[in-house]
Amino acid sequence: MARPMLTLLPLVLAVPAAAQTTRKPPPTEAAPTATPATPSVTGYPAAAIGDGATTGGYNQSRWAEDWRALCNPAKRDDPIDALKCIKFDSDGDIYATLSGEVRLRVNHTTNPNLRESRAQRQDIRRIFAAADVHLGPHLRAFGEIAHGGISGVELGAPPATLRNDVVIQQAFVEANADISGIAIGARYGRQEFFDGSNLLVSSRDNNTIRYTLNGWRAWARTSTVRIDLFDLKPTQYGDLGTDDDVIDPARRFSGATLGLVVPRTWFGGSKLYFDPFLWRRRNLVGAWGGRIGPATRYYLGTRLWGDAGRWTIDWSVNRQWGHYINQDIDAWHGFFAQTYRVGTSPGSARVGFHADYASGGGGYGDGSLRNAYAPYGNNIYYSYGLFLTPSNLIALAPNVTISPARSLRVTGEVQRAWRDDQRDAVYRANGQPFAGTQNVRGAHIADVYRLQAVWTVTPRLSVTGRYEHLAAGKVLTRANYRSSDFLAGWVSFRF
Predict the structure, then answer these.
(1) How far is residue 398's CA from residue 393's CA, in Å, rounded to a whole number?
(2) 241-297 per-position pLDDT tens digit
(3) pLDDT tens figures, 190-233
(4) What does the alpha-carbon distance between residue 45 and residue 273 come to, in Å, rounded to a whole number?
(5) In whole angstroms, what is the distance from residue 88 CA to residue 11 CA?
(6) Strands 251-261 vs 246-247: parallel, antiparallel or unpaired
(7) Which of 7, 17, 360, 451 is the most buried (most CB within 10 A)?
(8) 258: phi then psi, degrees, rounded to nearest 5
(9) Residue 245 and residue 345: Cα distance in Å, rounded?
(10) Residues 400 and 351 sit within 8 Å (Cβ to Cβ)
């Protein structure tokens, strides 16, 4: 869909061989009057507009970064900084920001698919390159291409999100304006979208090629209120080149999200946001219990998230209804995560837990369909090995995060998982059931022990390691599934 847009977007980038180590972070969303995603000015806090968090100047979605400060040569620290603002006019209103990422990763999984078998090793490489072209203060075009490669042992048939020679990952145009103090805007094209709990909508960074959608998103924002409307269809990736990456004709995701800033004086000083939402997901090829057919699912819910003193919370509840073939949908999600910062400094240790509920039942035709379903959520939240998903799931997980060094963050977690309905299956990250689990009784699915370490060498260079042991519980072992160990490590360089 994006061939005409490519003529606007030069995407030939040179990635330096080494990262410099003393770079000063540029301004981020700490200044609430600037929206990273656009050059326009809005009073709504930039961290809460549904474009993800910006840390050290970098965002998971590269178009959500604001590098205008580097248009001033005096603010630059090295030659790479010059790529963040390439001016095309004397005033600097027309400029381009170039960005990219190289990630080298290794995954090792014992008993893949939780069956007793030879261990799997995935050697994965990711290369992204992007250009963000600003045509004055109210118009922009963004394009991003990506390459994903994989080799290793026991790979099977890797999906196109892991192996893809070249893909147009994002390509959109955006316009914005300020009318009587209300910032309005719209974006059209292929884009990442994760305005909501990351357990419901996520770009799925665990993949090599990101999850993207096609269509439009529009918004209006004041200093304390925002509304976002969207109508999007997922990208259906092929693995032969750009010609087979098409808009998925079978799925459609649309809706509205409202955002409200909780008064800062509440709870002794806070940065909290309240986001009610109403969404609809249509899928002509929905699959439950070995049946495939049309499904329309509605989501009505709300999310309360942010910081209140030393507490950080992310609470979300949604009710789901609609129809799947000849079944009514009647499902619930409840996600409750909270951490407490033990000390007063930002690097102090944090302790917390998350408690989550995803209703289950009916997946095999028993009355109404009570299985909750996330549109495209972040499944590594429950299992690095992608063995769990929020359908027919109850999870409780205490966790602790420490920073033994300023640039090192280590998180440990122990999670116990049960199923909500013993007559329904256990489901994995792709929404497929572990075959046979619907025929055995018991509630305990597994205990999951997890450890992650992130070393931020520089704002551009990071090293990440993950380990997970999934100890199969009664439900899995009775259906002849096994325990599994997952080990992963990767180096990521971005500019």
Answers:
(1) 17
(2) 677 899 999 999 999 999 999 999 888 788 999 999 999 999 999 999 889 999 999
(3) 999 999 999 999 988 989 999 999 999 999 999 999 999 999 99
(4) 10
(5) 16
(6) unpaired
(7) 360
(8) -105, 140
(9) 46
(10) yes
